[in-house]
Design goal:
CATH architecture: Alpha-Beta Complex
Shape: globular
CATH superfamily: Spore Coat Polysaccharide Biosynthesis Protein SpsA, Chain A
GO molecular function: glucosamine-1-phosphate N-acetyltransferase activity; UDP-N-acetylglucosamine diphosphorylase activity
Distance between the termini: 34 Å
Number of helices: 8
CATH topology: Spore Coat Polysaccharide Biosynthesis Protein SpsA, Chain A
Catalytic activity: alpha-D-glucosamine 1-phosphate + acetyl-CoA = N-acetyl-alpha-D-glucosamine 1-phosphate + CoA + H(+); N-acetyl-alpha-D-glucosamine 1-phosphate + UTP + H(+) = UDP-N-acetyl-alpha-D-glucosamine + diphosphate
Helix content: 25-40%
Structural class: alpha/beta
Pfam families: NTP_transf_3
Number of strands: 11
Strand order of the largest sheet: 5-4-1-6-10-7-11
Protein name: MobA-like NTP transferase domain-containing protein
Radius of gyration: 17 Å
Order of helices and strands: EEEHEHEHEHEEEHEHHEH
InterPro entries: GlmU-like, MobA-like_NTP_Trfase, Nucleotide-diphossugar_trans
Length: 246
C-alpha cells in the first residue's frame, strides 16, 4: 500500500514563513512524525504532495526514499491528490494522510489498512468523536449506520454541526476506483476548493460502500493550523516521550 501525505499547506495562519510541515516539535520537523507512523505501520512507498516550498521540504529529507508530487496551486485536498495521478497505477491501494497530524500512530494506520482489506468497502475513513468538533468536517451516517457523506464545517447546516463525529482526513482506497470520481469533483461554492470529502458522497450515491474506523484516542487527529494548536501538539508529544521513557 502507498501512503500519500498531503504537505502543501502554507503557514499563513501560523504567522511563519517556514512551511507548516517543517515547523519544529521537539527538534524535529512536524512532517517527520507522520512519516515515522506510516513506516511503523509497514507502508513502504511514500509520496509527499508539496507546494511552492517543495525545495525546502526536499532539503530537510535529502536521503529519504520518499517521492514528491507538486501541487502548483492551493486548490483543495482533491486537487492535491490528483497531483499524484502520474505516479499511481489503477490497481494501487493508497492511504491519504495529512502531514500536519504528528500524533497519529502506526497502530491506527495499521487498523485502517486492516479494515480496508477486510471490509470490502470502496473507501475506509478515519473518524473521531470530539467534545468540541468546531472546525472539522462532520460525518453523516445513514439509517444503517454506514457513512453517507462528510460535510465541511463551513458548508454544514446547523443540524449537522451538532454532530460530534468528525473526519480525521485519513482515507484508504484503490486509486483506480477513486481517480475518476476525483476528476468529477466540482469546487465548493463557499470556498472555491476541491474537497476530497466530496468523493465519499459521490461514491455512496453510485452504490459504493464507505466504512469508518473510529480513533481510539481523539488526540491522534489533532492538526496544526494555529500557534495554539502547535503548542497543544508539542505538549502532547512531550507527554508521550516522557511515558515512553518511564
Amino acid at each position: 500500500m502507498t501512503a500519500v501525505v498531503l504537505a502543501a499547506g502554507e503557514s499563513k495562519r501560523m504567522g511563519s514563513v517556514t512551511p507548516k510541515v517543517l515547523l519544529p516539535i521537539n527538534g524535529r520537523p512536524l512532517l517527520s512524525y507522520t512519516i515515522d507512523a506510516v513506516r511503523e505501520a509497514g507502508l513502504k512507498r511514500i509520496i509527499v504532495v508539496v507546494g511552492n516550498a517543495w525545495r525546502q521540504i526536499e532539503a530537510i529529507f535529502p536521503d529519504s526514499d520518499m517521492e514528491f508530487a507538486v501541487q502548483a496551486e492551493q486548490r483543495g485536498t482533491a486537487d492535491a491528490l490528483l497531483s499524484c495521478r502520474d505516479l499511481l497505477g489503477d490497481n494501487e491501494e493508497c492511504m491519504v494522510l495529512c502531514g500536519d497530524t504528528p500524533l497519529l500512530t502506526g497502530r491506527t494506520i495499521y487498523r485502517l489498512v486492516d479494515a480496508y482489506q477486510n471490509s470490502g468497502a470502496d473507501i475506509v475513513v478515519l473518524t473521531a468523536r470530539l467534545e468540541n468538533p468546531f472546525g472539522y468536517g462532520r460525518i453523516v451516517r445513514g439509517a444503517d449506520g454506514n457513512v453517507e457523506e462528510i460535510i465541511e464545517e463551513r458548508d454544514a447546516p446547523r443540524g449537522v454541526k451538532k454532530t460530534t463525529e468528525v473526519n480525521a482526513g485519513v482515507y484508504v482506497f484503490c486509486w483506480g476506483r477513486l481517480r475518476p470520481v476525483l476528476e468529477c469533483i466540482r469546487p465548493s461554492s463557499v470556498s472555491g476548493e476541491y474537497y476530497l470529502t466530496d468523493a465519499v458522497r459521490m461514491i455512496r450515491s453510485s452504490g459504493g460502500q464507505v466504512a469508518a474506523v473510529i480513533a481510539e484516542d481523539p488526540k491522534e487527529i489533532l492538526g496544526v493550523n494555529t500557534q495554539e494548536q502547535l503548542a497543544e501538539v508539542r505538549s502532547e508529544v512531550g507527554r508521550r516521550s516522557f511515558r515512553e521513557q518511564v
